[in-house]
Amino acid sequence: MGRVFVISDHHFGHQKIIDFESRPFANAAEMDEYMIEQWNAVVSQEDKVFHLGDFSFYNKEKTKAIVERMHGTKSLILGNHDRGRSKAWWLDAGFNDVSEYPIIYQSFFILSHEPIYMNKHMPYVNIHGHIHGQKYEGQHYFNVSVEHWDYKPVSFEDIKNSLVPNEEQ
């Protein structure tokens, strides 16, 4: 297996998200193409991507066509806009696995759609989306909404490196 990536909140096919989040696209079709290109620019077929929700506003046929064009093994954690569709719907649309709940990854990272309350004494890091261009302060939160990453999935290696203070040896 290759590298592991995380990303959230593509909102494929959602014209209004362009205005809501000041995305630099003329229309949803232009946005969709750019986001697929950005995904495939960093993700190979051997890689795994955790998508933290709010993937597509399209019907199953159009959603499946997008998923099939995107490299890697894809896991979906359902976001608030994904929940109107069943787990089976998302599997049929091409995701390799689907979770209705947050996932604990490598016993340290909590992958969720919405940020989870984390007090300063908790040793975990919550990797999340949902809040788009906003950002929570502190070392307990890492926002992987597409707006922060030029619509490219973020590698776990980069996330880990950003959380570890640089120490001179």
Describe the protein in words.
The radius of gyration is 16 Å and the shape is globular. The longest helix has 15 residues, at 28-42. The chain has a single domain, classed as Metallo-dependent phosphatases (Purple Acid Phosphatase, chain A, domain 2), CATH 3.60.21.10. Strand 2, helix 3 (60-69) and strand 3 form a beta-alpha-beta unit. The model has no long low-confidence stretch (mean pLDDT 93). With 169 residues, the chain is an alpha/beta fold. It has five helices and nine strands, in the order βααβαβαββββββα. The strands form two sheets. A five-stranded mixed β-sheet has the order 4-3-2-1-9. It has helices at 15-20, 28-42, 60-69, 87-92, 156-163, and strands spanning 4-7, 48-51, 73-77, 97-99, 103-105, 109-111, 125-128, 141-143, 154-155.
